[in-house]
Structures are given as C-alpha cells and as structure tokens.
Design a protein that fits this description.
Layout lengths: L1 E6 L7 H9 L4 E4 L8 E5 L2 E5 L12 E4 L4 E2 L1 H12 L5 H4 E4 L3 E2 L2 H14 L11 H9 L14 H16 L7 H20 L2 E3 L1 H10 L4 E4 L24 H7 L6 E9 L2 E3 L12 H10 L11 E3 L1 E2 H11 L3 E5 L9 E10 L2 E3 L11 E9 L16 H14 L3 E5 L7 E3 L1
Parallel strand pairs: 1-10, 1-11, 2-5, 2-10, 5-7, 6-8, 7-9, 11-15, 14-16, 15-19
Antiparallel strand pairs: 3-4, 12-13, 16-17, 16-18, 19-20
Helix pairs in contact: 2-7, 4-5, 4-6, 4-7
Catalytic activity: IMP + L-aspartate + GTP = N(6)-(1,2-dicarboxyethyl)-AMP + GDP + phosphate + 2 H(+)
Protein name: Adenylosuccinate synthetase
Subcellular location: Cytoplasm
C-alpha cells in the first residue's frame, strides 16, 4: 500500500524530519509534487541538512527514493543538492531514481518568474523566483521539457525552441538585466544536464506499480502545504501544483485504491512565508516571540516567516480535503515559553461566525474566534514519552484532536530525530 505524508498548513510544518522518522518503515519514499522551493530540514548525525527536491529517505540505506513526474526539477539545484548529500557519504546512484516524465525548470523559466513577479508591484504573489510556476505553466500548456528528453539526441534543439518562446514572452516585460541572468543561468544549466543524464532515469509509473505489486511499502512525500494547493488553497497566493492527497495519483502514476493512511503534519501554531491571507497572524510581540522561539526563517529562502496561533478552521478543511487519518504535531516545544496558548475555532466575517473557509480569504476582514488554553511554562524537549508531557500540553493536544475528529498520534518536541513522542 501507499501511505501519504503531507503538510496541512502553508508549508514549513517540519515534514522532512517526519518523513525521515518514518522512512525506515518503508521500502520506497516518493516525492509527488513541487519544486526546489521546498525545504525539508533534517538533522543527520547532528548536522543540519536541507533537502529541496530529493526525497527525505535518502539517508536510510535500505530505502529506495523516487522523484515523481508531478515534481518540476531544476538540474542546477538538483546537482548542487546531490553533491551536498554525496559529501555526507551517500551514494545516490544506488537509492535515487527519477521519473522520466518529470518536467524540467530551464533558465528562462526563472527569468519569466522574476519578470512576472516584478511586474505585479504591490500585488506580488511571494514567488521564490525559482521558475516553478512558469515550468508548471509550460507543462499544462504542452510546451515543457521532461527529464526523459535530456537523453534525446535533439535535446538542445528542443531546448532552443522553448527558449525562443520564452524570449518572446519576456519581450513584453520592461525588466532590465534579464539577458545577463539568462546567460549566467544557462552556463550552470548545461553543466548540470550531463550530471542529470547519469542518474537512474526510469518510467516512474511502471517502476512504482511494480514495487507495489511485489508487496513493497511506499510513502508518498508531499512538499509545500495543503493551504497552498493550486485548486483549494488561498488562491491566487498558492503554489502551482496539487499539494493535497489527490496529487499523489497524478504525481506518481498510481491508482487511488493503493492509498491507505494519510498522515497530516501540522505545527502546534501556524506560519506562512510570502504574501497572502493569514487569519491567525500575530503582528505583536507574541508573534515575534513565536518566530524567535521557533527559529522561523525559510529553509531555502531565509525569509522570516509570518507567525500566528494554530488555525483549526483551516486544519479541519485540509483534513477533509485529503482524508487525513492521523496527525503529527510538530514544534510543540516552541509553546513551552508561553503563559497561554490560543487556537482559532471559528472565523467571524461581517459579523457572522463560520467554521468554513470562504470562497476567497484575500481581501476579507476575518476576525478569529479564539479558545484559550493555559500554558505549561516548563521545558518539554527532554520528554521521552507522551505521558511525561505537562497536563496542560496534553489538554491542548486533546482539544485539537477532538475539534478535528482525527487523532494526533505523534507529537514532535524538538528538532532531533529521536524527539518524537508516539501517543
């Protein structure tokens, strides 16, 4: 069967560590969507490692890892990431495979991303400028290049055709310096393509289905978060792919009946990077304290994350969309320092309370309805069992459990591999 692990908020929920924790129980870890804007942070032998495209199971000797066709891959970022992992003694030629239908981010995708974002002015989406959106646009526009194309004899011809199309589009923007950017990015790109060609490029759908028929256990690893889903997130401030569990089938080429458990990951509070609505955001000292205590800065971009209390309305929505069967609550120890902890249980919009997300949050004045919990004001990072946690923290966890109707089965109380408490 296939179990799915995905984020339930706006990304940055700590999925990398959780995948790493579960990885030893699975034969295959497969990324099913997203691009190198994902930053899955793990601590391996005390050393911080940030994975962008490569699945979080690569540090387990007996685990096979697959980059699925729903991912968009930047050969330059992939090469650098691979070299960083190789420096830790990991041989990716043995346990990493790439689906041939995975789309490629080319230098002019990055230029289009940059030009588009600059042109939006104050209406910026908050793009990471890595070319991900334009790559997905070419995918749906049936113009894209795929990993399987790099081993084709006419790859450079295909590349040049796509580049010329992009240059025509770029001529509509009045952005200086793009020519120099493209020239520099192209140099790196064509140095990285031969590296990509040496990797294990496979028919991802056949590869994975053969594993399943052989009785292998698969964990599908999501990137970003459910509230960034292109269909169901806070549009237009979303990513360019389907981040909910439905994306597993199209992103890996497997049928729905293979999916068993859906493991949702949520922080004990809430964060967001970039633009877009955030109903529980705190613009005060409490928000600053959350950011400082949680070290809330983007793993890839370094951007400060916006911080707020946990949003149970949004969590209930994303649990519903993905059919979440169990929850992992991360960074619970960050709340150790607070005298009280809040949770949003409803939205007040135009004087009316609702527990449903409206058609569009952007532009609405949303007033959170809060439930307040007593803080525990003691360090929990050293706890080894769930029962060792302060009663106030257990009350908070149980309240989340009851509101969502989905069990919180794991609580992470620190960044270390061993700091996960099973409930």
């Amino acid at each position: 069967m296939v179990d799915v692990l995905l984020g339930l908020q706006w990304g940055d929920e700590g999925k990398g560590k959780i995948v790493d924790y579960f990885a030893g129980r699975y034969d295959v870890i497969a990324r099913f969507q997203g691009g190198p804007n994902a930053g899955h942070t793990l601590y391996v032998n005390g050393q911080k490692v940030v994975l962008r495209t490569i699945p979080s199971g690569v540090f387990h000797d007996k685990t096979i890892n697959l980059i699925g066709n729903g991912v968009v891959l930047d050969p330059v970022a992939f090469k650098k990431e691979s070299e960083d992992i190789a420096a830790l003694g990991i041989d990716l030629t043995k346990n990493l495979f790439i689906a041939e239908k995975t789309h490629i981010i080319v230098p002019t995708h990055r230029a289009l991303d940059k030009a588009s974002e600059i042109s939006k002015g104050h209406d910026k989406i908050g793009s990471t400028l890595k070319g991900i959106g334009p790559a997905y646009m070419d995918k749906t526009g049936r113009n894209g290049l795929r990993v399987g194309d790099v081993i084709s004899a006419d790859f450079e011809t295909l590349y040049e055709k796509l580049k010329q199309k992009h240059l025509q589009m770029l001529s509509q923007y009045n952005v200086e310096g793009l020519e120099a950017d493209i020239e520099a990015w192209e140099k790196e790109f064509f140095e990285a393509v031969p590296f990509l060609k040496k990797m294990n490029i496979v028919s991802g759908e056949y590869f994975l289905n053969e594993k399943l028929k052989a009785g292998k256990k698969v964990l599908a690893e999501g990137a970003q978060g459910s509230m960034l889903d292109v269909d169901f997130g806070t549009y237009p401030f979303v990513t360019s792919s389907n981040t909910i569990s439905a994306g597993v089938c199209t992103g890996l080429g497997i049928a729905p009946q293979w999916i068993k458990e859906v493991i949702g990951v949520t922080k004990a509070y809430c964060t967001r990077v970039g633009s877009g609505p955030f109903p529980t955001e705190l613009h005060d000292a409490t928000g600053e304290n959350l950011r400082a205590a949680g070290h809330e800065f983007g793993a890839v971009t370094g951007r400060p994350r916006r911080c707020g209390w946990i949003d149970l309305v949004a969590l209930n929505y994303t649990c519903m969309l993905s059919g979440v069967t169990q929850l992992v609550m991360t960074k619970s120890d960050v709340l150790d320092e607070f005298d009280e902890v809040l949770a949003c249980t409803a939205y007040e919009i135009n004087g009316r309370q609702t527990k449903q997300l409206p058609f569009q949050l952007n532009g609405l004045e949303v007033k959170p309805v809060w439930e307040t919990f007593k803080g525990w004001s003691e360090k929990t990072a050293t706890c080894k069992q769930f029962n060792e946690l302060p009663s106030e923290m257990k009350t908070f966890v149980e309240a989340v459990d009851n509101y969502l109707g989905v069990p919180v089965k794991y609580v992470s109380n620190g960044p270390g591999r061993d700091q996960i408490l099973e409930r």
